[in-house]
Every structure is written in C-alpha cells, then in structure tokens.
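Sat 14:20. Reprocessing the chain from the morning session after the first attempt stalled halfway. Input below, unchanged.
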Amino acid sequence: MTEEQISRFFQRIDNLTTEHTPLFGKMNVHQMVCHCTDQIRLAIGTIRAEVYGQVHPEEIIALSRSDKTVPAPKGMGQVEGGGTKPTNLAEDLEILKQHISEFSKLDDNYNFQPHPYFGSYDKKQWKRLTAYHLDDHLKQFNV
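Finished this time. Tokens:
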C-alpha cells in the first residue's frame, strides 16, 4: 500500500463510530475493525486460522462479485465468536491503524504466512488483498 492509500484508509477509519450500521453482512462496526486487524495478523503470522485448505480464487471472486458474503476462515468469524474480541472501539481503531502502518513497512523478504484459502502469498499479493479487504469492509459501513 502506498502512503496515499494508507492516508485515505486512516481518514475513513477515523470516521467510524458505533452509530454506523452495515449495508451488508452481520458484523457490527466494532467486530469489523477487529476482523480487519485479524486479517493483517494472519498475514504476518501472529494468529492462525483453524483450518487451511485451498479454495480457488475464482470462487471467492464470484461470491464477491455477486454481492454475497465471503465466509471468514474457520476460527476467524466475528459473528460466530471467533477472532479477536472487541474491547474498546477507540483503542481497537488505533490498533488497526498501527497494524496497517507496520504491515506496509515490512520487507519484501518477510516470511508471510500462507492464506487459509489461497495458500502461499508474497508481500505484493498480501498488500493487494489487504487493501481490497479493508476497502470492502469500510464500504460495508459507508465510509
């Protein structure tokens, strides 16, 4: 992600409040913030999904294009009680921004973890997926 992309993400993140309701999906805004942070944690290996298995990227793209919810990897579904538990929204927003900043500065040779669905991913692929994921969830809450 470029500095410009990060800056735009931060502006959008700073606009989130508990008053935001989702345009789609079942997560509340606080769950979404933790979910997005968990996706970065997954990439850098500080957390792991419960199950890893290949899913063809076209399946995920087809779900996304048809405005259907893409299921979270097992153990990561906020609505189901998985993933990092929301605590304080202001703190969790800062944690998300911190993870975005640190993630964007990782060396190209960093040992990124495999994606639970797509398998081996390098920095470029993780950055593209992370930007898409953040954008999609921020749109979910109309910011």
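Residues 33 and 85 are 10 Å apart (CA to CA).
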